[in-house]
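ok so heres the complex, two chains, lmk if somethin looks off
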Amino acid sequence: MSLLKSRTGILVMIGIIVSLFVPVFVANKFYIDILSLILFSAFLGQSWNILGGYAGQFSFGGVIFFGTGAYASSILLTTFGIDPWIGIFAAIAAGALAGLFIGFISFRYGLRGSYFALITLAFSEVFRVIANSVEFTGGGVGIFIEHAPGIKNLQFTDPAGYYYMALVMVIISLAIAFWLERSRFGAYLIAIRENEDAAEALGVNAFRCKIYAIMITGAMGGAAGTFYAQKYLYIDPPIAYSIGMSVEMLLVTIVGGMGTVFGPLIGSFVLHTVNEVARHFIDTPGLSLIVYGVILVAIIGFLPNGLIGLFKSQKKQTGGKSDA
Amino acid sequence: MTKKILKSGVSRRTFVAGTAASAAALAASNFGFPHIAKAAENVKIGLIHPATGFLAYPGGQLRYGAQLAIGDINKAGGIKSLAGAQIEALLGDSQTKPQIGAAEVEKMHEAGVHAISGCYQSAVGLAASAAAAKYNIPFSIDVGVSDKLVQRGLKNVFRMADGYGRIASAAATNLGAINKAAGSPAKTVAIVHEESEFGTGTAKLMNKYLSEQGFEVLETIKHANPTRNFDNIALRIKAMKADIVMPINYPGEYVLLARTLRQQKVDFAASYSVLGGGFNFKFVKDLPQIAENMIDVNHWYDPKSSAGRALRKRVEADGKFFTFEVYLAYLSIAFLADGFERAGSTDPAAVNEALKNSTLDPMFMPYGPTKMYDGQNIGSRAVAIQAQKGDVQIISPAEYASAKAVFPRSKA
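and the predicted structre for the whole thing:
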């Protein structure tokens, strides 16, 4: 069935059209800014989802690609005066190359499961230390990007500019996930996730497929890095290679539903909303985090397939089909 | 769904649950949204500080100091040129994240904020002040030492206290003077600094300025944030036999390094920190033996001023420590209120112009006359302070000194 004719396809089209008009109808710029953060988080989650959700290679180092991309475009801009419009493609390439490097070393030596997760965590620390130690990244001082609003510099005075940029990124990430679910390559990744040895026995080149997957993850992470750098105009090693951001990527995906097209988007939306609601009603600093944590653990405990599992189980009960 | 087992033997569900549970507290801060605790009227000043996270203590002190100032100004009749308009605070929590700090600005802008004071961390201040620049919202940096904060050409950003560039210069000059007065017993320095812009930038400058004062920097040691064990660094310092140990780091690491140096019985003439995050009355009271004779170059109030002594008394009566965050936040609010007063308007352009031409009396700070140059108050200055017998004394410069330096330190 063609995607565009399916129920999911129609819902996606409606969602995109509604999203396009959100800044027109929502006057409060703060909400637009928050929606940008939600979309940004969803995009990062989707980048993790390609490797972790579809290929089953759980990574604790998703931030590596984000940071590398942020540095790539920022260095090109501040050192060579190259526009971030070109820089974002360099960031995508840098992220993909970082993925190739880490993937080659890790998969070449057969690291899987927890071992792969740990080596990616180690790599993120290695990248942070390197960024802290070399001159061209600005070392611990970091890189400052000049405040020069304008489309040429990918800097917007209206939060709607960043919103649309994040929206485009999310739409592209959804398209990648759709393609994966319907392509032979995606089927290979899922086969590897389910049983790598069996997949290889059936002729799937697991090493190559995993390398491609981590490169896609890396490329997406790189693009996110440019988005961040141009929005906040400052990048340093603790920001670029923060473990907190790695956790955020996998958490939105796990909560939303790993290995699904909409999981990261749903996870990002729900987690941000839950946190905001908790903070809104609880003034004591820190207490809202406890409430948030309890809700989070409850979601994980009762919905091991993520929030998207709710829709699937409902469809099973009603005999409907799921496109998610 | 069939149960999936990872090759390492960890089940998918266990991985998922374990990851989420262990990461919940850490991750929660990443999903945080800015929070405005109180709706505001009249002149609205946004306070953006790290109310949660590893910098919650200094963040709380900053918020307290700012609210103290707002209370005092309101009690004294508010902004008189605005018909006694009261100042109301919009409270924001940056959660130590630049993106959250910037989102706070958006939220406050929607709430009609007229000026903002913040943010403690330079990285957050950079992002938040750039966000405020889009709306030309006056932005006063209460604490934030990166010189880039006021060197980006943003017309809405001001800072009453010093940045690390001038503080580093003052620190080296003061150390040179103290050492000379004692007969020049110290010749070598070991710098230990945290790895972000604050520590790295300051350490780089200190290398230059210390050489100019005739000191030899034996080693510049960088450490991560957080660092929970300084044994190796302490042993390295012990081995190199540096005369001066120079910490440049945040509160937790500052105190831990000081403790470790004592535990490892490292012998040195003085601990001379620059913007030592942990050097304050709390440290001196909690760990008097360790703190005794430690020197720091930092923002500090003028103990000779009656306003300073009175403010300290009030703060301590509230059960708080009189840390630099409290009085710098107080000063930042006074600076903004003075801008509104002289502008006679809440129009951002008018207030920014008034702030640019500020001649605010620095009240309880050991500063010269206020004069803004590119957003930086060049009348400000840091002083050298030393823990002496359970209290903190200014030891340099001479015109503000409340006691003589104990240098080299006494060895208890």
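quick notes: Chain B touches chain A through 60 residues (CB under 8 Å). thats all i got rn
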